[in-house]
Sequence to fold (244 residues):
Amino acid sequence: MTLKEQASALYKTAFPDDPDDFALGFINRFFEKNCRYILKDDRIVSMLFLLDGSLKENGGKRPALYLYAAATLPEYRGMGLMAGLIEKAKAEAKEKGAFLLTKPATPSLFSYYESFGFKTAVFSEEKLVKRETDQKPLGKIGFEEYEKLKEKLLENTPHVNLTDSKYVLSFFDLFGDENTVAAVDTAEEPPVVKEFITGDGQGRDRLLASLNSDEAIFRINGNTPFAMTIPPTDTSIHFMLALD
Fold:
């Protein structure tokens, strides 16, 4: 197998619940530039991805790296291979002056990443929301308009954007107006709102009207640990649209 094929096989071993088309598309798009891996006998046995992005806060912008899809073959776990890759990722981020963040795949991994100096900076919850009033639906929008409206709504909120966010957003239906934006997985039942930003008390009902649904699962700010960062910033940030 080629290295890319090995990476794809390792991804599927570590994340079997992810759809095959997503896994294949992700590896094809990001392997060459963004994968960091360890070889044993010409075989990829451990890997992670560093996806490019930016952190915007206080009117400024700095580079960011999103540590994603960290995986090791079962027979090579417990050898410190992933620890070595994470330390190298930290060093790469420091060299680039980049903000480093990750979304642990399971709750038990938060303590693991804490051992490398990560701290939880994003808290969220998933909540089933039912429509309470009749509202005019939000319009369906494209990627560029979504990004423009999102930046306006988050103008005073520290937030992370992935450089290749168009790829992430391509998996969802996008809705918005000047007061609300939402990225929705409409293949789920009920629909799952992966990112929801609003300055309007009727935003949820307008989105539900857009979906022709009386309810949806919303990912919103909450109390459950969601994503972690390496200091120096101790500020809570917005990073809801992770690849998860």
In short: The two ends are 27 Å apart (CA to CA).
